[in-house]
Protein: Major facilitator superfamily (MFS) profile domain-containing protein
Amino acid sequence: LRVHRHSLTYRGAMLNINRYRLRASSCPDIYRNSMTTIAKEKAEWLAGLWELWYLLADMLDFSHFSNLKFLLFAISNFLLYTWYDVPYVYLAHNAIEMGFTDKEASVLISVIGILNMFGEIVLGWAGDCKWVDAGLVYALSMALCGAVVAMIPLIYSYHLLCILSGAFGLFIAANYSLTSIILVELITLERFTNAYGLLLLVQGVANLVGPPLAGWMYDITGSYDLPFYLSGVFIALSGGLLVILPIIQKIQRFRSAKLKKGKMATIAVGNHV
Structure:
C-alpha cells in the first residue's frame, strides 16, 4: 500500500497497534476506540500481566524482519548508527591532538550543528516532493557523508576541517529527514508504528557499540585515523545498501506478475477443458 507522504502526519498512526480495535465512523477523522479488556473476574495482578504482555507484543513484533526490504533497511541503519557518532564524539579531540585550541575544536561541532539544521530543512522538503526519490537522495547523501568522514584524517588545515565538518552535518541530515519517509514506502502505514519502534531499537543498540569501539581502536593505535576511515567506509556502505532496494522491488514485482500470469493461464486451461 503506497500512501501520500503527508500521511506521516496521520493523527491515528499511534493507534495502529494490536491493543486497539479501531472502527471508522461516517467521519473519517473520528474513531471509536475500544481497548481489549480483561475479564472482570480475573485478579488485578493477572490483568496487569496481560497488559504487560500486550505492551511487549506491540513493541517487539519481530515479524517485521521477515520483510526483506525492512531487514535490509535495518542493517543499513545499524551500520550507520554504529559509526556516524565517531565525528560527533572524537572530532574535537582529534583537532586538539592536531594542535588546535579547545575553542577552535569546539567550533567544529558547532559548524556540524548549524549545517545539520539547514540540511534537515532542505532535505526534508526535497523528500516530500513527488519527483524526488527519497531512497536515492538518502543513499547519495550517505555516500558523500562517508567520503567526507574518511577525508578528515588527511586534512591538517583548520579551514578545510570546518568545511568537512559542515559537509558532514549537511549530508547526515538525510538520515533524520528521510528515514520515516523511506520506511513508510517500504511497509504499510498500519505497520509503521511498530516497525519504526524496532528501527529505533536497532539504532540504539548500534549507538551503544560504535563510540566505545572507536575509542578502543584509538587506545590500540594511538590515533583516530583508523576509526575515521572505518566510519567513512561503513557510512557510505549503509547508503549503498539502499541502492539494492529498488532492485529487490523490481524482482518482487516481476515475480508477482509472472505468478499472476500463471494463475490466469491455469484458469483459462480449466475453462477450456
In short: The first helix runs from residue 44 to 59. The radius of gyration is 24 Å. The helical segments are 44-59, 68-83, 85-97, 102-127, 134-151, 158-186, 192-221, 225-272. The first strand starts at residue 20 and ends at 24.
